[in-house]
Write a structure and sequence with these properties.
This protein is mainly beta. It contains six helices and 20 strands. The chain is globular. The structure holds zinc ion (ZN).
C-alpha cells in the first residue's frame, strides 16, 4: 500500500476563529466561532468511544472515487488498524466518510466511520454506522456496524480524520440561518482556500440541530453498466431529505496540492434511522449548526489511483 505524506500549514486556533468568523458570515446570518474545551464526545448525541478529537490530528485520503466508478473495484478494502499504522498513529481514533466493504456486508453501502483502532493494550472499538437503501420501499436504512459485523474495514474510498481521541481545545462553530449557496463545510473550505496559500485541512464533527438536509446513499448493488458521466452517477445514487438532529463527521482540505484528493467529504448518522452522505441543509431559514473542529498537522494519501478522473466528486 503506497502512502504519500505531506506536512500541512497549521494556523493557531485563535487565528482560525477570526478567519472562519469573518468567512462564514458571508454564508450565515448568525455565526459565532470560538475556542472551547471539546465537549465529552462519549455523551449523547455523539456516543463516540473517545472523549475528544484532540491529540496530533491528521487526515488521510484513502483510495478514491476512481475505484468506485466507472466500475467498482471491490477488492479495494482497507483495514483501519492497518490505516492507523500507515498514518503513523496505531491506536488512533478515526472518523469521517467512506464506503463500507461489500465483502463484509454482502452489499454496497455508505459507511460513517467512528473507529478506535487497536493498540498493544486494547482491542478495536468500532462505533461506526452504515446506511443503505431498502429497494422494496426506497427507504433509508441505518445500522450500527458492530451489531452485525466484527471487522473494521472500509472499501474503495475514504476521507478520514485521525487523532488520539483526547479532550482539549477545539474550534467551536455555531452558525444559524444560511444566507449563501454553500453548505457549512463548503463555506469553511472556501474561506480557508481564500485565506491561505498553503493547504489547510480540518476535521471534526458537527450537529445539524434544526432543519433538514439533502443526503445520498449508494444503492446496495454496484452498477453493472459503467458510470461514465456525472449524470450517470446522479441517476445511480439514491437521494433523501433527512431530519435533524443529524451528527455529521467531516474532513476538508482547502486545496489539493496535486495528490488527487477529494477536498471535502461528510457523512452523517442520527438516532432516528437516517444517515448517509451530506450535501447541504434544505431548510436555510431554520437551520442551526453546532460543530467542533481542529486543523490537521499532516495529510496522508494512501493508495492513490493511478488512473483518475473528476466524475462523481461532489
Ligand atoms: Zn460519501
Amino acid at each position: 500500500m503506497a502512502t504519500e505524506k505531506l506536512a500541512l500549514h497549521v494556523p493557531s486556533l485563535e487565528e482560525l476563529c477570526t478567519v472562519l468568523q469573518n468567512g462564514l458570515q458571508e454564508s450565515f446570518a448568525s455565526v459565532q466561532v470560538s475556542v472551547v474545551e471539546c465537549p465529552d464526545l462519549t455523551q449523547h448525541p455523539f456516543s463516540f468511544p473517545v472523549k475528544g478529537i484532540c491529540g496530533h490530528p491528521r487526515i488521510t485520503d484513502v483510495g478514491g472515487v476512481p475505484y468506485l466508478i466507472p466500475l467498482a473495484q471491490i477488492d479495494k478494502v482497507y483495514n483501519m488498524n492497518t490505516v492507523a499504522k500507515e498514518i503513523e498513529m496505531p491506536g488512533a481514533f478515526i472518523l469521517g466518510a467512506a464506503a463500507a466493504s461489500s465483502k463484509s456486508l454482502g452489499i454496497n453501502a455508505e459507511l460513517i466511520p467512528l473507529i478506535w483502532t487497536e493498540n498493544k493494550d486494547r482491542c478495536t472499538v468500532n462505533s461506526s454506522y452504515y446506511s443503505t437503501v431498502n429497494m422494496k420501499d426506497q427507504t433509508c436504512v441505518l445500522g450500527k456496524y458492530s451489531d452485525k459485523f466484527s471487522d473494521c474495514d472500509i472499501a474503495l474510498l475514504g476521507n478520514l480524520y485521525a487523532c488520539q481521541g483526547n479532550p482539549g481545545k477545539v474550534v467551536q462553530i455555531m452558525a444559524t440561518k444560511r444566507t449563501g449557496e454553500y453548505s457549512l463545510v463548503t463555506a469553511m473550505r472556501k474561506t480557508l482556500e481564500k485565506q491561505y496559500e498553503k493547504p489547510v485541512a480540518m476535521g471534526g464533527t458537527f450537529i445539524i440541530q434544526k432543519g433538514k438536509a439533502k443526503i445520498h446513499i449508494m444503492p446496495p448493488e454496484f452498477s453493472v453498466c459503467p458510470l461514465n458521466t456525472d449524470d450517470d452517477v446522479n441517476n445511480w445514487l439514491k437521494y433523501f431529505e433527512v431530519s435533524a438532529p443529524l451528527i455529521c463527521q467531516s474532513v476538508l482540505v482547502s486545496k489539493d496540492p496535486g495528490l488527487d484528493l477529494r477536498v471535502e467529504h461528510t457523512h452523517c448518522f442520527s438516532h432516528h434511522g437516517e444517515g448517509g452522505h451530506y450535501y447541504i441543509d434544505t431548510t436555510p431559514e431554520s437551520v442551526e449548526y453546532l460543530g467542533y473542529f481542529l486543523p490537521a498537522e499532516f495529510l496522508y494519501r494512501i493508495d492513490r489511483p493511478k488512473e483518475t478522473h473528476q466524475i462523481g466528486r461532489e
